[in-house]
Amino acid sequence: MKIRFKICCIQNVEEALLAARYGASAVGLVSAMPSGPGPIPDEQIAAIVPHVPPGVATFLLTSLQDSASIIAQQRRTQAGTLQIVDEVSTTTYAELRKDLPGISLVQVVHILGRDSIDKALAVAPHVDGLLLDSGNPSLSVKVLGGTGRVHDWSVSREIVRQSPKPVFLAGGLHPGNVRRAIETVEPYAVDVCSGVRTNGRLDEEKLRRFVEELQRK
């Protein structure tokens, strides 16, 4: 079973090229966040994007919630996909579609319980994909990703089963559990940040083991 994977929290061109060399279908570039690992300035994201090889998607992780700010950020960075990590209105999706033709939209849904199933399915018609993560936007300091925590995969599996759009699975994945995760959830793709890093840097040995687990039959 071959499954796509995205390497998130990319810090520089070297990490992007390393991820691509190991077969990543996408790289994640984290802009300013209220908390969590890996954010880099928009200027740094804009400098990385042109060096990402063709065929590897560039995801801009944005915590902005109004369309004007998100549109301006995408135009600064030139990333091909917007990964929206907080909740936005349906009007915002429509405005993004109108002003950013050709830019893909992926909405993060933080799995907090079975209520997340209805939330994910309500969002799906407005976006190109869903990404299931383990944050909590309701905290006083929002946690919007990069937790290193696994959530309830039975909820994620149900979203995958019902969603009309592709579903990425994130949240606490690493070489030791990613095979079980994909067998349990059966996502379109998996997404990893801290699980392939050491002291904040992309660790080639961990990345190699992660990819081996994905390719293991």
Write up this protein.
This protein is of the alpha/beta class and 217 residues long. 35% of the residues lie in helices and 19% in strands. The protein contains eight helices and ten strands. The protein has helices at 13-21, 42-48, 67-77, 90-99, 115-123, 153-162, 178-185, 204-215, and strands at residues 4-7, 26-30, 57-62, 81-84, 104-110, 129-133, 167-169, 189-192, 197-198, 201-202. The strands form two sheets. Strands 1-2-3-4-5-6-7-8 form an eight-stranded parallel β-barrel, surrounded by six helices. A two-stranded antiparallel sheet has the order 9-10. A hairpin with a 2-residue loop joins strand 9 and strand 10 (201-202). The mean pLDDT is 94.
* Top CATH class: Alpha Beta
Along the chain, the helix and strand elements come as EHEHEHEHEHEHEHEEEH
> Poorly predicted ranges (pLDDT <50, ≥5 residues)?
none
CATH topology name: TIM Barrel
Structural class: alpha/beta
Number of helices: 8
Shape estimate: globular
At the fourth level of CATH, the homologous superfamily is Aldolase class I
The number of distinct structural domains comes to: 1
Describe how the helices and strands are arranged:
Layout: E1 4-7, H1 13-21, E2 26-30, H2 42-48, E3 57-62, H3 67-77, E4 81-84, H4 90-99, E5 104-110, H5 115-123, E6 129-133, H6 153-162, E7 167-169, H7 178-185, E8 189-192, E9 197-198, E10 201-202, H8 204-215
Parallel strand pairs: 1-2, 1-8, 2-3, 3-4, 4-5, 5-6, 6-7, 7-8
Antiparallel strand pairs: 9-10
